[in-house]
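EI: anyone free to look at a 235-residue chain?
SC: sure, send it
EI:
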Amino acid sequence: LLLFRKELPPAVLESLCFSPHLEIQRQALRRRILMPDELLGWAEQGCEEIQCLVAGDVNLPEELQELLARHPSETVRQALAGNPSLKAAAVTLLLHDTAPVLAALASNPFLPEPLLALLAQLNIPEINAILAERPGLAETVIQHLVRLGDETLLYRLALRGNVPEKLTPDQLDALIRHRLPTLRRLAAAFPRLHKNQQLRLARDPSPTVRKTLAANPGLHSDAKLLIERPDDMRR
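SC: here you go
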């Protein structure tokens, strides 16, 4: 009942943090901004569920992140991997961890580009699949995934609108001719299409491919006319 109150005196909230009932303890800790020494105490002496809560705390100091990155519990390390303020030192330790921990790292929306690139360089198919589905993926990571030549990764990149800035002529030609419209859409969004490539895509049977091409900032006027007035162009 106390925890339903919007405001609680600090002493009351602190007392609730030490409740023998785990759910009360968990809720109280979520409402309290913990100081570094308190975070350390809970990280070392709390039960596994409380340690997971501490591992995900946005104010977790870097030295405690490194401490929890070596925690014997995979569940705690997995919670740490999703921390929005995760530092490079902790990530470096977690890069050698189990598949669930690596998956949590790859899914962390706050992980910066250099750390995502380190994850991609592990070349683990399951992790690459997660990375490819991140919206707004950095070009360095996109290029690494493209170089692997895996159509499944290309498909996931296309679904999330992760368009490579660089493609070899062979890669681009393969995408333009691909049987799957989603991968042809990836080609249609490529910023440096030649006129003939644009004209081919403008005749694509898939409306989504033509719509993607129409939004391409480098669209040639002939391709634009073919998209807008296909019957006139045929005549």
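EI: The chain has 18 helices and no strands.
SC: 👍
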